[in-house]
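S., here's the first fold you wanted:
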Amino acid sequence: MKFTHYNLGFLDKDQIVEIGLKGNATNVFLMQSTQFAHYKKTGERHGVGGLFRHTPVRLKVPHSGYWLLTLDFGGFAGKVDSHVEVYPANYFNHIATK
């Protein structure tokens, strides 16, 4: 199974993980180390996320802890370029719109 992963380190509850995608629709999941170990063994995804076709993807951290992010195509062929940014909780509530 081919996948890309990012080790995000310790994140606080309600922080926002923003993923920019360019390419195919992609499975994007935010998971903790035990979920990641299970994913590597079985290919089963658990955590916060799903299949995304549009960017940016924004996922809220459900509780404080160490987090990883995975991107895959569910066994299908594909290519995607990605970048990840982490923002404080409520960051997007403080952006003024014109």
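And the second, which I think is the more interesting of the pair:
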Amino acid sequence: MGADVLLVERRRRIGRPAQCAGLVPAVAGRSIKGIKPDAVLSVVRTARSCFPDACEDTSGSPGLVLDRERFDNALAGEAAAAGARVLSGCRVEPRRSGAAAVTENGGRVNVKARVVIGADGPRSAAGMLIGSINSDFLKTIQVTLEHGHEGDETLFFFDRELEGGYGWLFPAGSLRRLGVGLPARSGIKLRQALEYFREKMSRRGFVSGRVKKITGGLVPAGGPLRCHEGGVILAGDAAGLANPVTGAGVMNALISGELAGEAAARAAGGEGDAALRDYADEIEAIFGRTLRQAVTARKRFMESWNLGDDELSAILRRAWPLSAEYRHAGRQEEEISRS
């Protein structure tokens, strides 16, 4: 669109380490140009969710498990091929004036920009600049295990030892990704929760083999933030667009990132602040209601872990986006809001 673009990445190797389980809906493969076949580790055909009272198939929706390092590198490569300048291994200090100070190898470069897009994660410096700060988080930890054969099913486990969160098990080619996510304010230690869950999955025959790598990080869980002020706009986790219940954020980051780029180019091309206001309105229209519904659902199930298995499971099903109960509750709330 004719804009002069600078992409600045904090890590020296883009996409590494991958602080992500890498699961996206299969529709992402059709709607997002950056997903190449060599970045797809597994095609997921079914999802099984295990609540305290029973395990059940909760979704027939297919998905893809990504190699995030390859995927992120491919996106950066496409940006460079389109004309963007890419700087990696740099730290950015966004400013209200629309300028950014970039530190690279001890040097300092001042960059003037009409628009700064903050796509810098849950503790976004750009978000802090405009007072849009994620304050509620899930803390996560994940191991990649050798397994020996491929699978096509994702597993989600709700367990009283993982109070307020859940465990997951995803296929990743011949490997398995096993992890847990808990409220950041939880008194449960992440590594202990991970070992508990790994032992449980091992006893059930779901995992085997040695650990190849371990990763983790924070996921925003407080819902969408105000994503525009002046010449600054936010995208992805920086804008609080991860699902507060599941922690899923890749698809929302891809969608918001593409919209943010288009809005920034329009603003730089003469439309100014109007293009950025349009971006904020579009983000609200696409994500606002759904994510606020998830915030309400998360609060409901966070308060319910002292209930019996049947009651807790019923509430979890209404909070879990893959379940039929959740989708039904969402339709009911939408009908009420329209009436």
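Why I say that: The longest helix spans residues 273-302. The mean pLDDT is 88.

Talk tomorrow,
H.
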